[in-house]
Amino acid sequence: MKKVYCIGELLIDFVAERQGSDLSKANVFTKKAGGAPANVACAISKLGGNGVFIGCVGDDPFGKFLLETLKKEGVDISLAQLSDTFTTLAFVSLSEDGERDFVFSRGADRELKYNPNLRKNLSGNILHLGAATALLGGPLEKTYTKYLFDGLTKEMFISFDPNFRIDLWKEDQETFIKKCMPFVEKSHLCKFSLEEAQLISGKEDLHEACDLLHKAGTKIITVTLGKDGTLLSMNGTKKVIPSVKVAPVDTTGAGDSFIGCLLYQISDLGNFEPIFEDFPLVEKMVAMANKAGAITTTNYGAIVALPTKEDLEK
Ligand code: ATP
User: Fold this and answer.
1) What is the pLDDT of residue 98?
2) What does the record give under GO molecular function (predicted)?
């Protein structure tokens, strides 16, 4: 079983308990572990794989809580870093009209430093770059780029999820697109939402969007479509693989669960070659990942709702 190195942010989401009010009126918040790459590492380890998290938290009680949460899920946190800067915090509430009210206090996640000693361990493993905050600048962005090149020179299987958050890029979506492109060019697998595929390619039509993103460099594209399934595009073939019918209560983390399950299955293969040629094989893996995504929507929270291998087999 290969290791899956997941690089990016780990942060606290303070979620307002009473929905329907904006943050100025919210009094009670629930503390939750957040951060897409960290969720992906948890998804992989919970399924029995080797999820490794590389990111930075503050040397404070919140940082301690976050690392303990990952450890409990079986994630290898030995490469996580502690900073004197406070742990990154996000405050979220849903206002009466269903709009998200969001305040982001960026701290330690941006401080992640490149670890050159890691290079020798990377060969033949998987690298997952989940970019929600990474492209916002700071040492993390530079570290990200260095690991991308390490991944290429060490023949890793590279996966990229842009994790676009409108709250973080409201003013400057062009910069987001520009910063994503080198990762789309160099990654073997890209996971997009419909919005991300359209935004980054500049194409409304999903097939045209995929063609353009393939042209940029990425060989395998998955576009997650919520209850409508996942579009898989590779080797000149495109197919929507249907989702599993469930009664969702909270869709937080479904995308992370999906990509985590897909990478878990790839990590279980002896070598990566078949992934690039065998459409039916990847289709089967996507169908399994759809199942993981669907299960995650049937419970509240991101990490708690991730399935185990037994849940998937049921
Ligand atoms: P995120 O915002 O967490 O990054 P995303 O937009 O990338 O999520 P989604 O499309 O919401 O991802 O969900 C990922 C996968 O989970 C889907 O492709 C689908 O297989 C499954 N899924 C999500 N929502 C549902 C649903 N309501 N019913 C069944 N399956 C779902």
Assistant:
1) 66
2) kinase activity
